[in-house]
């Protein structure tokens, strides 16, 4: 915990701004809040709700309400509270009914390195789990940033991308050749597309049947409909070097279809590398997936993963696994 003795004002404002973007209330309890003069409160507002990013893509009103309420509670006994802090609290209370909001994820705990995702906090919305970012997506992205060589100059295919946090983070930070995010739900696909436009300056969108390719500094970021139950219509020129997926192992009825997709791409490229990040909510389900892999002659290896190196992902995660899947036996 920071104390007010030896921390300068800029650090205090930055720490508070980071805790706001990280959606963490814990730093607010620290002793340094009593140093927050009006001027520092003003600086804090310009780093957060008045920043160009946040003005364009305001974050969760529910969290903003909790944060600003707590901030006011702690500030009031010590200082005059900035008018705009009260004003902002009133405005978010009005807009809380919205189902979607913008989440700003700090990479490397930096205010200069943020991935912004439009998503819901609901587990299921409009019949899909794909409209929010799940913990496995943070885990897979954090691991990818620790293992960038695997992605450098490679064609990446993501299965069940959801709102696109993993794909977008990998394109931003790993020097990929191309990356295609896929899903089978139309609203999810539309949301990925919007999230790509929010995070990259796209020079051009090219529609090619079921594939939309956004051009960003000569890098191609694709969004495509891909249903694991349909191996017949997979476009022939899609030959990934690396396949990734986060939190796509939860429904036993789609284990075999998913593995059929692995099979198709393995036939197209014997060296394809497959990495699947799983949250293990039920060990029978997870073991069922491993068994189905085995029956289909796929081998697997559990990779060791460090927590929270570049991205925070450990909250409330009971048990998890990052699988490397292959036809050959691992050394
Ligand atoms: C739990 S969400 C995970 C989303 C994202 N990967 C993440 O971790 O945040 C599962 C995703 O798989 C997609 N999905 C489920 N069944 C599918 C299928 N048969 N074909 C393609 N995608 C599917 C859903 O639409 C959803 O986006």
Characterization of the model:
- The mean pLDDT is 91.
- The chain has 331 residues and is of the alpha/beta class.
- 36% of the residues lie in helices and 20% in strands.
- It starts with 8 loop residues before the first helix and ends in a 5-residue tail after the last strand.
- Helix 1 packs across helix 2.
- It is built from 10 helices and 11 strands.
- It folds into 2 domains: 9-98, no CATH class; 122-326, 3-Layer(aba) Sandwich (Rossmann fold).
- It has a 9-stranded mixed β-sheet with strand order 5-6-7-4-3-8-9-11-10, with helices on both faces. It has a two-stranded antiparallel ribbon with strand order 1-2.
- Residues 128-130, 133-134, 136-137, 160-162, 183-185, 188, 226-229, 246-248, 254 line the site of S-adenosylmethionine (SAM).
- InterPro entries: FAM86_N (IPR029426), Methyltransf_16 (IPR019410), SAM-dependent_MTases_sf (IPR029063).
- This is Protein-lysine N-methyltransferase EEF2KMT.
- Keywords: Transferase.
- Belongs to the class I-like SAM-binding methyltransferase superfamily. EEF2KMT family.
- It comes from Bicyclus anynana (Squinting bush brown butterfly).
């Amino acid at each position: 915990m920071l104390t007010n003795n030896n921390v300068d004002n800029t650090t205090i404002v930055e720490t508070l701004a980071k805790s706001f973007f990280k959606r963490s209330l814990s730093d607010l309890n620290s002793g340094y809040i009593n140093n927050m003069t009006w001027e520092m409160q003003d600086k804090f507002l310009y780093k957060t709700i008045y920043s160009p990013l946040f003005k364009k893509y305001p974050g969760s009103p529910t969290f903003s309400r909790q944060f600003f309420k707590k901030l006011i509670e702690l500030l009031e006994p010590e200082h005059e509270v900035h008018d705009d802090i009260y004003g902002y609290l009133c405005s978010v209370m009005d807009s809380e009914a919205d189902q979607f909001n913008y989440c700003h994820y700090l990479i490397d705990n930096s205010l200069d390195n943020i991935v912004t995702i439009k998503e819901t906090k609901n587990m299921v919305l409009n019949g899909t789990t794909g409209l929010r970012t799940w913990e496995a997506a943070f885990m897979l992205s954090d691991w990818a940033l620790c293992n960038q060589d695997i992605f450098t100059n490679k064609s990446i295919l993501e299965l069940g991308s959801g709102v696109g946090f993993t794909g977008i983070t990998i394109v931003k930070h790993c020097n990929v050749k191309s990356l295609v995010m896929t899903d089978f739900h139309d609203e999810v696909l539309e949301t990925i597309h919007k999230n790509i436009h929010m995070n990259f300056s796209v020079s051009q969108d090219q529609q090619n049947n079921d594939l939309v390719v956004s051009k960003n500094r000569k890098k191609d970021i694709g969004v495509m409909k891909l249903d694991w139950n349909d191996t017949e219509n997979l476009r022939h020129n899609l030959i990934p070097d690396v396949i990734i997926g986060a939190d796509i192992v939860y429904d036993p009825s789609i284990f075999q279809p998913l593995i059929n997709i692995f099979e198709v791409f393995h036939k197209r490229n014997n060296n394809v590398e497959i990495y699947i990040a799983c949250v293990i909510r039920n060990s029978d389900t997870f073991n069922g997936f491993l068994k189905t892999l085995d029956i289909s002659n796929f081998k697997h290896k559990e990779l060791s993963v460090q927590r929270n190196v570049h991205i925070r992902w450990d909250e409330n995660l009971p048990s998890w696994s990052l699988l490397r899947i292959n036809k050959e036996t691992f050394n």
